[in-house]
Amino acid sequence: MGIIDGKVAIVTGGTRGIGYTIVKELLRNGAQVALAGSRQETVDDALEKLAGEGFTEGVMGIAPSLSDPDAVADSFSWVAERFGHLDILCNNAGISSRTPLVDYTIEEFQKVMDLNVTAAFVCSQAAAHIMIEQGTGGSIINTSSMVGRYGQPSGVAYPTSKFAVNGLTLSLARELAKHRIRVNAVAPGITHTDMVDTLPDALIKPLIDSIPLGRMGEPADIANACLFLASDMADYVSGAVIPVDGLSRP
Ligand code: NAD
Asked: Quick check: is 145 in a domain?
């Protein structure tokens, strides 16, 4: 028996990287899961990959534009209808950028903010709407980052967006507590995914060397923290931003 048996979750950015691992961890522990991706094609690929790993039951895919309130509301309602309810939302989808300030365009800044912040707001609103109507509480888990605590020396939209995610987390935790909807965040340090694979070795190696626990994070490290926050084991935890970063203090 899994620790989230019978619960229903939506994971944004569930097609690869950290999100894909969160999807598997939630499925393995008894939830039904809808993974959200940016395109139907990548969603279908992820569902096929999951099936290849033995995850065929209780999983579906959606691909709404995450910063479009109507598209997200329709999609989330469809998931709640199909699986019976909605208990967990993981706002995991995110994009990074490392452009120096002098070269930053407003379009690039806006693109990062749109997905990392606006989409988290839109998805939280749609999920909360369903959870409040159900009256059985819920758990919203945002993906922040260690740079949402320490800043980052380039690509200013990314750390700015993660500071905003922390603000969203703490504020919604207060606003939604009366509905027994808990809102928390995980703040990964450098974690081994495609996002990191695109960065040059010269940048990555010194970062890893500086991590007190001596290694880069794995997606499973982040998924474990999400599983805890999603479960009733975290029934008295809300408004927390949990660092999962090997004690990285850049
Ligand atoms: P990734 O690039 O491997 O995956 C990103 C996910 O977001 C993918 O599933 C992708 O489809 C989805 N996505 C991208 N653009 C989208 C859009 N417009 N609409 C919907 N979905 C979209 O990244 P990752 O490393 O797995 O990152 C996941 C989360 O973890 C992000 O919020 C990221 O900021 C955060 N994070 C990652 C690291 C790291 O080192 N990898 C560190 C700290 C925080």
From this structure: yes
Residue 76 lies in a domain: yes
Residue 178 per-residue DSSP state: G
Residue 194 domain-assigned?
A: yes
What is the value of pTM for the model shown?
0.97
CATH code assigned at 205: 3.40.50.720
Does residue 248 sit within a domain?
no
Number of domains in the chain: 1
CB 193 less than 6 A from any atom of ligand 1: yes
Q: In what order do the strands lie in the sheet with 59-62?
A: 59-62, 32-36, 8-12, 88-91, 138-143, 181-188, 241-244
Local mean pLDDT, 10-residue blocks, the chain (250 residues): 94 98 98 98 98 98 98 98 98 95 98 98 98 98 98 96 98 98 98 84 89 96 98 98 93
Question: Which residue among 18, 23, 40 has the greatest number of ligand 1 atoms within 8 angstroms of its CB, and so is best to mutate?
Answer: 18
Give yes or no for residue 188 CB within 6 A of ligand 1.
yes
Q: How far is CA 199 from CA 86, 163, 191, 192, 218, in A?
A: 36, 22, 12, 11, 16
Residue 31 Cα to ligand 1 midpoint, Å, equals 22
Active site residue 158: yes
Tell me, in angstroms, the distance from the centre of ligand 1 to residue 15's CA.
9
User: Which residue range(s) make up the domain with 210?
Assistant: 8-242
Q: Which residue has the tokens 């084991």?
A: 233
